Amino acid sequence: MPLVDVTHAPTVPEHSLRELGSVLPHLVSLAVECPEEPYDGDLRPGDVEIRFRSLGPLDRSGLAVVIEIKSKWFASRAADRQERVDALHESIRAATGLVDFGVYLSLPSAAWSQGD
């Protein structure tokens, strides 16, 4: 279950952020798919959580958009994490047209529990 934080400059148009929000669940799921957590293409509530926040007056960023992804560590994910994040960056660019953005993939030891 990836958690995705999108931090953006106030100058990024809302329609661009909405488009990003619509493609991220699928693209992130593809990027972190692994044998331990396969992706069947059928996203359900809680499968990918996305939060957007605008840069504040004291924040400093050299990019218009920074996408931070946290997904549970598995050896199969960790082995090729750079290839995964590079492919995800390209997929986001192709799907949205964004150019001034970065993607950070973190694979912490974690656990997740969700009610019905």
* Main β-sheet, spatial strand arrangement: 2-1-3-4
Q: How many strands, what sense, and barrel or not for the largest sheet? A: 4 strands, mixed
Helix and strand sequence: EHEEHHE
The number of E-state strands comes to 4
Structural class call reads alpha/beta
Query: What gross morphology would you assign?
Result: globular
Average pLDDT, rounded to a whole number, is 93
The whole-angstrom Rg is 14 Å
Outline the low-pLDDT stretches.
none
Q: What's the helix count?
A: 3
* Helicity, as a percent range: 25-40%
Ends apart, CA distance between termini: 15 Å
Share in β-strands: 15-25%
Structure description:
This protein has 116 residues and is α/β, with parallel strands linked by helices. It is 34% helix and 21% strand. The protein contains 3 helices and 4 strands. The protein has helices at 14-32, 75-78, 81-96, and strands at residues 3-8, 49-54, 65-70, 101-106. The chain has a 4-stranded mixed beta sheet with strand order 2-1-3-4. The longest helix has 19 residues, at 14-32. The protein is globular and about 40 Å long. The mean pLDDT is 93.
Summarize the structure.
Helices cover 34% and strands 21% of the residues. The protein is α/β, with parallel strands linked by helices. Helix 1 packs antiparallel against helix 3.
Secondary structure layout plus pairing:
Elements lengths: L2 E6 L5 H19 L16 E6 L10 E6 L4 H4 L2 H16 L4 E6 L10
Parallel strand pairs: 1-2, 3-4
Antiparallel strand pairs: 1-3
Helix pairs in contact: 1-3
